[in-house]
């Protein structure tokens, strides 16, 4: 028969450390939501309004003081398009639903190649993300101009079966604030597509 000796002191310390880790994890989630709410409040976003499309299969929320306008799309690639802009016109963007033909990463690489022929980029970054259980990509870049303003682009591409949702935000480089990516992610997390 094998005898197992348990050091009560080590066991007690281990249980306390595990308990503290669980408490800190819970506080971190709560703090993250409060941080996002604070970022919205700092940018004068007091409430969100829900928008829907594609016979209520698509739902998302935008700040109530933003202007949103749906456009009729007639084609086989883009099946939904809605433009939006902030009340002060510093943030512009759109929401789209595309039919996905092939791999999303290949689509993004091809789009970048085509766009590079027309625009000058700096700080182009693409990374894999998961938002609300949907895999996709976050693409961040700055479009530079020889004359005029440079623009920051932050775009979310989320796979939904044989389609993908695109949430794009554009801000003049001079108007860009450090908390804007947090605001954009909070908005994208309101997206529901069935």
UniProtKB/TrEMBL annotation:
Keyword Membrane in annotation: yes
Keyword check for Transmembrane helix: yes
Keyword annotations from UniProtKB, A to Z: Membrane, Transmembrane, Transmembrane helix
Transmembrane segments: 12-27
Name of the protein in its database record: PsbP-related protein
Species this chain originates from: Clostridium moutaii
Lineage: Bacteria, Bacillati, Bacillota, Clostridia, Eubacteriales
